[in-house]
Design goal:
- With 453 residues, the chain is an alpha/beta fold.
- It folds into two domains: 3-68 and 248-314 and 408-452, FAD/NAD(P)-binding domain, CATH 3.50.50.60; 104-246 and 315-403, Polyamine Oxidase, Chain A, domain 2 (Alpha-Beta Complex).
- The chain contains 14 helices and 21 strands.
- The protein has helices at residues 3-9, 11-18, 38-50, 91-99, 133-144, 147-163, 176-183, 187-190, 195-201, 206-221, 230-238, 251-261, 380-387, 433-452, and strands at 30-34, 55-59, 71-74, 77-80, 86-87, 114-119, 124-129, 243-244, 264-266, 273-277, 280-283, 286-288, 290-293, 303-305, 315-325, 340-345, 354-362, 368-374, 393-403, 415-417, 420-422.
- Helix 3 (38-50) packs parallel to helix 14 and helix 10 (206-221) packs across helix 11 (230-238).
- The structure holds flavin-adenine dinucleotide.
- Residues 133-450 form the Prenylcysteine lyase domain.
- Its cofactor is FAD.
- One of its GO terms (biological process) is prenylcysteine catabolic process.
Length: 453
């Protein structure tokens, strides 16, 4: 029997197939969350804080907690393959790290000639020398005039509006798009205006856009300035601020969220079917009062009955490669004898599929670890050619990392059907660990409030 087609016919058929006559009623409130990434783990933790009586079950198809936040070990040290940094304004992550006593101020120990090199295919169009931050500021002003100041002003203003979503005036929000509209930032993602048009309209020089802002959008979202929406580009500017990462891996926050939620955790459990039966939702045959989809719909392969509508979102296929070598990289391939902590390629260069190369750290064993982002898998031979060094280890991970961050007129609703919630509408708006943790916390509060009313 083709059970999937049987299910598709009707919820009644589903009940019949499972041999379920009546929908069970429970004394407690049962909640299922699909996905144990930033959103799902934050949801479980915050719901348990708002209402410790809730009975929470987490389904996670991977054998680890964290989703797009994942670490590898090189020379016994931790390196991030996914979500890597957060900033001080990311209060859910910062507060959690503080509460859990995690160290987050990790200094990089590499000593390159330049902090940043921006390569356009024929040469370095911008190089930021490794020196103190005041001299770097002077250097930026000499190169770009007041453009960095004006771009920063725009960023402060718009990110400030976004941060209002955390305030009591907005939180919890039933609908992200309406909340963003009320906060005054909807035009920054919903209009068909690219970041390059936005910055040009705000008199930010072409030179600063193409040499610095675009370098940031390529490092953070592997996306060019003429395709990314203005809000995402401004978030990339925010990522220039002092950044933090949890010692031992950012996923420790999400593991701790799950642990403290006391949820029933089912790892290696991929959910196939969610169906409304009576006043409950069935998740692969188990009944719940509320279900939270905490994973991008685009790649979840979950069947929901009755069908739900979630706007289509395209994700970037991104390859993250960690390379280990006993000696520092030599950038002869790029026509330079110097070294760079962060090397970014510009889109005018079509000759290589790499968007950035970062000198991540020198391990205690003296090995240099480089992290490359690319649109395709990089072979060992190619890596040797690009970095000009022998490879003593290579780690590869392919992701659907984040939405392409193009202007998005319609974000997904949060409650996609009665008592069925979706967090990843946040992703095409701003895709970060913090914002998805906020999406999870928001749904937790919506459900907790509903139960207490
Ligand atoms: C390479 C890379 C670099 C990044 N850099 C940064 C950064 O520096 N800073 C930052 O803030 N953000 C960064 N991000 C973005 C950030 O990691 C994500 O926005 C965030 O972690 C997404 O969290 P999420 O919980 O919404 O989704 P996910 O992390 O994708 O979690 C969804 C979970 O659902 C599970 N799942 C899916 N389908 C099913 C199913 N059928 N049944 C059960 N489980 C299922 C998945 O296995 C996954 O664990 C980066 C992402 C990548 C990939």
């Amino acid at each position: 029997m083709n059970w999937k087609s049987l299910l598709a016919n009707s919820a009644a058929a589903f009940q019949a197939y499972l041999g379920v006559g009546t929908v069970p009623q429970f004394n407690d409130t049962r909640v299922a969350v699909i996905g144990a990434g930033a959103a799902g783990s934050s949801f479980a933790y915050h719901l348990s804080q708002y209402n410790p009586e809730m009975n929470i079950t987490i389904y996670e198809k991977n054998d680890y907690i964290g989703g797009r936040v994942k670490t590898i070990e090189i020379d016994g040290e931790t390196f991030e393959q996914g979500g890597s940094i957060f900033v001080a304004t990311n209060s859910i992550l910062s507060d959690a790290a503080r509460e859990f006593n995690f160290t987050t101020d990790i200094a990089n120990n590499v000593k390159d000639d330049y902090d940043l090199g921006v390569w356009d295919g024929s040469g370095f169009v911008f190089e930021l020398p490794r020196t103190n931050k005041y001299l770097q500021l002077l250097y930026l002003v000499r190169s770009f005039g007041l453009a960095p100041y004006w771009a920063n002003r725009l960023k402060e203003e718009e990110v400030g509006k976004f941060l209002n979503l955390y305030s009591e005036q907005f939180f919890p929000f039933e609908d992200l798009q309406s909340a963003a509209a009320e906060a005054g930032i909807e035009p920054l993602f919903a209009n068909w205006t690219s970041a390059s048009e936005y910055f040009a309209n705000n008199s930010i020089s072409q030179k600063y856009q193409s040499q610095i802002i675009e370098a940031l959008t390529r490092v953070n979202y592997a996306t060019d300035l003429h395709t990314i929406h203005p809000l995402a580009a401004l978030v990339c500017l925010e990522a220039q601020s002092k950044s933090y990462a949890v010692e031992g891996g950012n996923n420790r926050i999400f593991q701790e969220f799950v642990k403290r939620s006391n949820a029933n955790v089912l790892l290696d459990r991929s959910v196939d079917v969610i169906a409304k039966i009576g006043d409950k939702w069935s998740v692969d045959g188990e009944y719940y009062d509320y279900v939270v989809l905490a994973t991008p719909w685009a790649h979840s392969t979950i069947n929901v009955y009755p069908a739900i509508t979630i706007p289509k979102v395209d994700y970037t296929e991104l390859h993250v490669t960690h390379v280990v070598s006993p000696i520092p990289a030599q950038y002869n391939f790029f026509g330079s004898q110097k070294t760079y902590e962060q090397l970014v390629t510009l889109p005018s260069n079509n000759s290589i599929p790499i968007t950035s190369i970062g000198h991540a750290r020198v391990t205690k064993n003296g090995n240099h670890v480089y992290k490359l982002f690319s649109y395709e898998r990089l072979s060992d031979e190619y890596l040797t050619q690009i970095l000009g060094i022998p490879l003593s280890g290579v780690w590869r991970k392919q992701w659907y990392s984040y939405p392409v961050m193009a202007p998005t007129p319609e974000l997904a609703r949060i409650e996609v059907a009665e008592n069925l919630f979706y967090t990843s509408g946040m992703d095409p708006f701003i895709s970060t660990m913090e914002t998805n943790a906020l999406a999870g916390k928001n749904v937790a509060r919506l459900i907790a409030d509903r139960k207490s009313n």
